[in-house]
Amino acid sequence: MSGFESLLNVHPLFVHFPIAITILALVFEGAARLNREKFPLAIATALIYSAALTAIVTVLTGFNAADTLGHDSPGHDLVHTHREFMLFYTALIVVLALGNFIITKRAGDRLASTWGKVFRPGLLIMATVMLVWGSDMGGQLVFKHGMGIQPPATPSPGEAQPGQASSPGDSAKPVQHDDDGHVH
Predict the structure, then answer these.
(1) Residue 93 and residue 175: Cα distance in Å, rounded?
(2) What SS3 class is residue 9?
(3) Cα torsion through 75, 77, 78, 81, rounded to 10
(4) Residue-level pLDDT at 96
């Protein structure tokens, strides 16, 4: 598989799981609070546990990815900031998962009620904010600084790279593709 062969590390394979799962957990948590039903709350709980597990794996692969970058790479300082945000997110989601497990299984009704109405939604909102902010930094590292991706092959002199005209005057000429007939 050429896509997997071009990966410099496995971190990109894992990063989207905690993002999607945490946001879904927040959606189901909100639905449970609005409808006062147990089914969305049960789904949110399962998603919180899944987010914690995938966050841990993603952090471990992120440490491995950071070790391959070197200190002179562009955006290196942003790597450290991204790491701190994502470690804080991971700590929040793990505390949320562990707290939820312990409190709902072992605590009295009053503590479980306070946890469910105040602390659980609050921690989930804080974790989601940290996740979105840290994920934006991760996106900047890839799409602005090119971290974690292989640079494109250098074309021969006079050969255009994908998305580029082969000479300055060619950019104004329309291009007809043979396969589907559309013109640029």
Answers:
(1) 50
(2) coil
(3) 170
(4) 95
Helix (H) or strand (E) holding 74: none
3-state SS class at 148: coil
Closest by CA position to 49, among listed 96, 90, 86 = 96
| C-beta of residue 65 within 8 angstroms of C-beta of residue 11 | yes
Q: How many helices (H) and strands (E) does the chain have?
A: 7, 0
pLDDT in tens, 131-160: 999 999 998 988 888 777 766 666 656 655
Angle at 141 between CA 140 and CA 145, to 5 degrees: 95
Q: Which two tokens stand for residue 86?
A: 């994502």
Residue of 3, 20, 13 lying closest to 64 (CA atoms): 13
Report how far residue 135's alpha carbon sits from residue 17's, in angstroms, rounded to the nearest whole number: 12
The predicted pLDDT at position 164 comes to 47
Q: Where exactly are the structural domains of the chain?
A: 2-67+81-143
**Among candidates 137, 148, 103, which has minimal Cα distance to 19?**
137
What is the distance between the alpha carbons of residues 32 and 47, in angstroms, rounded to a whole number? 13
Contact 149, 142 (CB under 8 A): yes
d(CA 46, CA 23): 13
